Amino acid sequence: MKLLSVLSAALIGSSAAFAPAPVNVQQRTSAVAPVSMAAAEGEFYIDQNRRNLMNLILVGSAAVTVGGLAVPYILFFLPPSAGGAGGGTPAKDKDGNDLNLKEYLASKKAGDHSLAQGLKGDATYLIVKDDGTLESYGLNAVCTHLGCVVPWSAANNKFMCPCHGSQYAPTGAVVRGPAPLPLALAHIETSDSGTILFTSWTETDFRTEGKPWWN
After folding, report:
1. What separation in angstroms does the CA of 14 have from each of 5, 7, 23, 133?
2. Count of other CB atoms within 10 angstroms of residue 207
3. pTM of the shown model
4. In whole angstroms, what is the distance from residue 118 CA to residue 5 CA?
5. Which of 81, 146, 166, 184 has the fewest CB atoms found within 10 Å of its own CB?
6. Residues ≥6 apart with Cβ < 8 Å to 117
7. DSSP track, 25-87
8. Looking at the DSSP assignment, which residues form a beta bridge with residue 76?
9. Percent of the chain having pLDDT more than 70?
């Protein structure tokens, strides 16, 4: 029995010699934490100036994109400004050349109704009167029914739309439906260099004695 006790004590002593030394967990954690936090701060810290620059780039890119989409949309609803010399829009032929009054009248006969490019790019009639001078107004050739270009019929002395049968007097007033409104008017002027100019008609429509519907 005494021998057994001695052997047990010897075995316990030898096992204790090979056991790992106790570790102070709190001390180890406190030692490692500052190092880990410092590493994390170094990894995720972003300079404020760099952040501001990135925000400016992002906002600027968004503004350019939105502006590029919005500007054409807004301009579509704004009336075009009258350009050209004398504050008007030059009348142009089918090739885009400005029309000179003297040259134009020399090439046309009395009673001629020919198309030119007018305000907003719409086809507009230039009318040569019986005395060989140019009428003081032009007539927009776009039918007020569904937008067809209305040809002039010299044989019938009126504008006759081939689409739905609307007819207009030489002044552009409606003489037969279904067109609900007369052809739009534009003033005709001449620049100092002799170029034929179109300007907006904003006063009373002399055919209806009312406000112009196209303004």
Report:
1. 14, 11, 20, 131
2. 16
3. 0.61
4. 123
5. 81
6. 91, 92, 93, 94, 96, 123, 124
7. HHHHHHHHHHHHHHHHHHHH---HHHHHHHHHHHHHHHHHHHHHHHHHHHHHTSPPPP-SGGG
8. none
9. 71
d(Cα 72, Cα 93) in Å, to the nearest integer?
Answer: 27
pLDDT of 77: 52
Distance, CA of 193 to CA of 27 (rounded, Å): 97
Query: Which long-range contacts does 118-126 make (Cβ < 8 Å, 24+ apart)?
Result: 118/89, 118/91, 118/186, 118/198, 119/80, 119/82, 119/89, 119/186, 119/198, 119/200, 120/80, 122/184, 123/149, 124/91, 124/186, 124/198, 125/152, 126/91, 126/99, 126/188, 126/196
Cis bond upstream, residue 178 (ω within 30): yes
DSSP string for 128-195: B-TTSPBPSEEEE-B-TTT-PBPPEETTTTEEE-TTT--EE-TTS-EEESS--SPPPEEEEEE-TT-B
46/122 Cα distance (integer angstroms)? 58
In terms of pLDDT, which residue wins out, 148 or 38?
Answer: 148
